[in-house]
Design goal:
Layout (H helix, E strand, L loop, with lengths): L1 E2 L2 E2 L2 H14 L6 E3 L10 H9 L6 E3 L16 H4 L7 E5 L2 E5 L15 H15 L14 H16 L3 E5 L15 H9 L4 E6 L6 E5 L2 E5 L11 E7 L3 E8 L4 E4 L5
Parallel strand pairs: 3-4, 6-7, 7-8, 8-10
Antiparallel strand pairs: 1-2, 5-6, 9-10, 11-12, 12-13
Helix pairs in contact: 1-2
């Protein structure tokens, strides 16, 4: 089955091969940056058993497609993937990893009748009126509550002498039609702290990269875009750099990390 350039069914064997390869590596954890499924609740039954074969701890960042299910199932998406909440943080190796939820205020993820849907419609209307490139119904934004949590967690990481890497589904920089609706306030927050080193995301299957004020914004490519070529990466974090070893379509990169004051 394909849709345009997307080969959804092929992602099952690609993921299976990736899991086998990752199980042969010494990794602290594995993270998926969203769009575990394309659509339909039953799709989780096909994909989640493959993830269960991972020997490493693994974390999900939910994407817009993960909510492409019947309205009655929206409230159960988190439970289905084993999450207690959609945004959270964890620590390891002197780093604090923040998982953010760009579906928080969107027109599709909150249950029908949730006030976040009305807020999402307002935000989208303002961006549409401003003719913003990212005024797309398949994007979303953070609630003010989540943004406050993000800021507080970054400050707490500084006090704990931890550096910060943020994991999200949607890009925030450089400017792109796939970016979060509130990408500007997120970029301003991240670039105002010297201990924040990188923002890693998916969503834009073509991939992208940008650097701003010493912060690295890496948009990993989508595995779904080709019939036979995979796309994933192994990331190694050192004191002075991040080494990204790309597999398949994904590029390999060396990203320098600046000193923390």
């Amino acid at each position: 089955m394909t849709n345009g350039t997307r080969y959804y069914a092929n992602s099952l064997w690609k993921l299976d091969e990736a899991v086998k390869a990752l199980n042969g590596e010494e990794l602290r954890f594995v993270a998926t940056l969203g769009d575990i499924i394309d659509r339909h609740w039953q799709s989780y039954d096909d994909i989640l058993p493959i993830y269960d074969r991972l020997k490493h701890e693994h974390f999900f960042v939910l994407g817009n497609h993960d909510y492409e299910v019947a309205p009655d199932y929206l409230h159960a998406v988190l439970r289905q993937v084993g999450l207690k909440r959609s945004y959270y943080d964890f620590a390891g190796g002197g780093y604090r990893f923040l998982v953010i939820d760009g579906n928080d205020v969107s027109t599709f993820a909150p249950p029908v009748g949730d006030p976040r849907r009305a807020l999402a419609a307002e935000r989208l209307a303002k961006l549409t009126e401003a003719k913003a490139a990212n005024a797309q119904v398949w994007n979303g934004s953070l609630s003010d509550e989540q943004f406050a949590w993000m800021e507080q967690t970054i400050v707490a990481a500084k006090a704990a002498k931890e550096r910060v890497i943020v994991l999200g589904h949607y890009p925030v920089y450089p400017a792109n039609e796939h970016n979060l609706w509130d990408s500007e306030r997120i970029v301003d927050l991240l670039t105002s702290h010297d201990h924040v080193v990188a923002y890693l995301n998916g969503h834009n299957h073509a991939g992208n990269y940008g650097e701003l004020k010493g912060k690295h914004f890496v948009n990993f490519k989508g595995m779904v875009e080709t019939p036979a070529t995979t796309a994933y990466a192994i990331v190694a974090v050192h004191d002075d750099r991040i080494e990204i070893q790309g597999v398949g379509r994904e590029e390999s990169r060396t990203l320098k990390i600046g000193a923390v004051g």
